[in-house]
Each structure stands twice: as structure tokens, then as C-alpha cells.
Amino acid sequence: MKAAALLLAGGMALSACASDETSGGTASSGSAGGSASAAALKVGLAYDTGGRGDNSFNDSAYLGMENAVNELGGELRDLTPNEDASNRPELLSQLAEQGFNPVIAVGFAYGDIIGDVASEFPDTTFAIVDSSGVGADGQPLGAGNVTGLQFAAEQGSFLAGVAAALKSTANHVGFVGGVETPLIQSFQAGFAAGAEAAKPGITVDVKYISPAGDFSGFADPARGQIVAQGIFDAGADIVYHAAGASGGGVFTAAAASGKRAIGVDSDQYETVDDPAQKAVIMTSMLKRVDNAVQGFITDFSEGSVTGGSDIVNDLSTEGVGLSYTGGFIDDIKGQIDEYATQITSGAITVPTAP
């Protein structure tokens, strides 16, 4: 499959498109040239909380869809949930009803409803980022027409923990999670394990912006700043966030404190607009949602998607990793690479839960 191969490529430059309002959420649509055989390709994407403009998770998913449509030709449409994200099922149904196929749900929050929607549209192929195409009972979701696009985020976060520990002069680092869920706890677990491996006895403070079930923690930069500031005030000199758009607040707190931060999902040194925020981002844990989405769409266009299964992107496929933009961690790259080799060889098993 090309999904794995595409994990080795793809730029992270983000581009804008026109937008308008449609029932069920904010939508933007466009088309791109391509071969005549791909002209019928219509790709739909439903965002996680906050939608476009988070400089992270959602933007990366859009980039993957945009790259695929630019390469293959066809049409794209993206929809954003309402403020409380209660209309997630309607967004997926709307895209399927309008003939978009495949339809991609961005975020594990769609996991509870995508199976029901997929059952209603058995001729539509669905994918879900950060969740599984298989239910807790081991049976394929929907009509066997859902593919999970998953990531070994704990592995990339382990390397982020290594980098934080090696660069910390305070022997004290921190983690800010957007919402306290098992997925985000896997980022926490990997980060803490990596920090401890690189510098035994290091202090790792952990705080979450919102509890399980309250997804506002992914779209509240003001609260992210307050939470991160508390960690910096307690003595940490580097904070890693897995908090979506709220990460902007973490960067603001780092800048105000004269400290450092670690971004997530995208190379946030490249994606943030604020020079003050950019200056404090020493690295980002890359979760290549863009490549996973692009690879899935490419596989779909070639007829090689079967559904009822998962594609796992990890260090071995370069589906996760660290950015080196800005040169802040170039001097410890050799040590980071050694830990990465131990993970891919199986010598280190990274925990997925705190």
C-alpha cells in the first residue's frame, strides 16, 4: 500500500481556501486538476473540535486531503463541528449524502458514532483518525466500511521526553494535555518514560485542561496558558503539550516565562504565526496525520482499501518523530536517534498509559 510509503514524504506548508456556511457546520470546498479517471473523486473531511486554523491536528489532516486531491484530481469538502461538537453524526451523514467518498473523520471523538453512520451508508468508505475501524467486540464497525488511521503517539512522545530531559537545566519538565482521555494519556506516558530514561529522577509535572468528556480543552488557548504557566511557575523549564489549538496558550506562557515548549502533531515552529511563540518552540512531536490521510485517499483511489481494519503509523514508518527546525536540538540528535533505534528494534517498549 502507498500509505506507508507516503509517510516518508510530504511538506507541512499550509494553504488557505475559501469558506462558506452550510447546514451542520462551516464548510470549505475546492477542486484540483488531475487525470480524467480521477475526476469523480470527491473527498469529505469532518474536523475535530476547533476546526481549521489550529496549526496542529486539524490543519495537518486538511493538508493531507488537499495534497491528495491536488495529485489525483477531484473535489474536496471539509466541515467543522458546532461549538459543543454535538453535530458530529450530522457532519458525516451530510458528506455521505452529498456523494463524498471517502469520508474522513478527524479525531477519536467520532469513534462512538462513526459505526452507526457507516451502517447507514454501506456504499461509502469511511476513515477515522486516532480511532479504530474495529469495535470493542472485535467486529468491524458499520458495514465493514471503516478504516482506522492510528499512530503510536507514545513512541514520538518518548523522544520528546528524551529531548526535554537532555535540554532541561532545571531537572524539571511538564506536560499539558487537552482532554484527559486514554489517547492523550498515551502522549503523557511516552513523554514521562522518555524523560526518565534520559535523566533518571527528573520531575515531570502533568496537568490537563479539561476532564474526559469535555472536549473544550482542545480549543481554549487562554486556559492552556494558565495551566502551562502554573507548571513553569512550579519550576519547569520545558513543557510539552498535546492540546490542539490550546497549545498556543502553552507557547504564550513559555514566552512570558523565558522558558521553552514542545509542539505536537505538526512542525509548530513552521506553522505558528506569532514570532514570540515561534522563538520558544524547541521541537515538535510530529504525528504525520497529513501523510496518513493522503495515503489513505491514494489507496482508495487505487481500490486497495478494504475497511474493517486499522493502519498504524509508528517510528518504523516515520509516522511519528521529532522536528529539527530551528536547530535547537541538533546537538542531541545522535542520542535521540539511539533511543529511536532501541524502540524500533524492540529493546525499549514504550508505555501507552501513565
Topology:
Layout: H1 2-6, E1 20-22, E2 25-32, E3 42-46, H2 57-72, E4 74-80, H3 88-97, E5 103-106, H4 114-120, E6 126-129, E7 146-151, H5 153-167, E8 172-179, H6 182-198, E9 203-210, H7 221-233, E10 238-242, H8 247-257, E11 260-265, H9 268-271, H10 275-280, E12 281-287, H11 289-301, E13 309-313, E14 320-322, H12 333-345
Helix pairs in contact: 2-11, 5-6, 5-12, 7-8
Give the low-confidence spans: 1-26, 31-39
From the N-terminal CA to the C-terminal CA, the straight-line distance is 33 Å
Q: How many β-strand runs?
A: 14
Helices and strands, in N-to-C order?
A: HEEEHEHEHEEHEHEHEHEHHEHEEH
Major sheet: 8 strands, mixed
Helix vs. strand class: alpha/beta
Shape: globular
Secondary structure: helix percent: 25-40%
Explained architecture:
It is built from 12 helices and 14 strands. Residues 1-26 and 31-39 have low confidence and may be disordered. It is α/β, with parallel strands linked by helices and 354 residues long. The protein has 2 domains: 2-151 and 289-317, Rossmann fold (3-Layer(aba) Sandwich), CATH 3.40.50; 153-287 and 324-345, Response regulator (Rossmann fold), CATH 3.40.50.2300. It has an 8-stranded mixed sheet, with helices on both faces. Strands 9-8-10-11-12-14 form a 6-stranded mixed sheet, with helices on both faces. It starts with a helix and ends in a 9-residue tail after the last helix. β8 (172-179), α6 and β9 (203-210) form a beta-alpha-beta unit. It is globular, with a radius of gyration of 19 Å. The protein is 37% helix and 22% strand.
